[in-house]
Specification:
12 strands
């Protein structure tokens, strides 16, 4: 028996926006609350007017990679929708990035067991991505997310690439 997936709202009024929790060149990530499902989420609002045509391809690729990914160490994609000149990607909420943790701890994650746990989970996520013929291409502290239970997940697939295209290994 399969469990029914919740219907995530595809309009802005389905969410209560709280704090800005991240940003990129053409996007801002918000902590939000889904009213109907009663769950905290992250919403990446991408300003489409600021995107070049190559960025639009990257956005399409990011959504495709996220939709196809289902792993304990990859941030879950929930839905996406357009709102005026913004593309909104709704994803599971994580409490902090490794970068946030380093800044909060004034540069220190010194316990070897903590570092090992973060690296192990990150590597499991990367193994999954690579096993599925994809490459992340932007692994950094701000794209490795943590939750309060110690779960580590990889995020931001904006520049992810496919290793194999039309039966041949991609060179770019």
């Amino acid at each position: 028996m399969t469990s029914k997936q919740p219907e995530w709202p595809t309009k802005m009024d389905g969410y209560l926006f709280k704090d800005e929790i991240g940003y990129g060149n053409v996007s801002v990530v918000w902590e939000a609350y889904c009213k109907s499902i009663k769950r905290k989420v992250a919403i990446k609002k991408i300003n489409l007017e600021m995107c070049q045509s190559s960025n639009i391809e990257d956005l399409h690729n990011e959504i495709s990679v996220m939709k196809l990914s289902s792993h304990a160490n990859i941030v879950s994609y929930l839905t996406s929708f357009n709102d005026n000149n913004f593309l909104c990607l709704v994803m599971e909420y994580m409490d902090a990035s490794v970068l946030d943790t380093l800044i909060f701890n004034k540069g220190g994650l010194y316990e070897e067991d903590v570092i090992a746990a973060i690296l192990k989970q990150c590597l499991l996520g990367l193994k999954y991505i690579h096993h599925n013929g994809q490459i992340h291409r932007d692994i950094k502290a701000s794209n490795i997310l943590l939750n309060k239970d110690g779960v580590v997940k990889i995020s931001d697939f904006g520049v992810a690439g496919v290793l194999v295209e039309h039966g041949n290994r991609k060179t770019e």
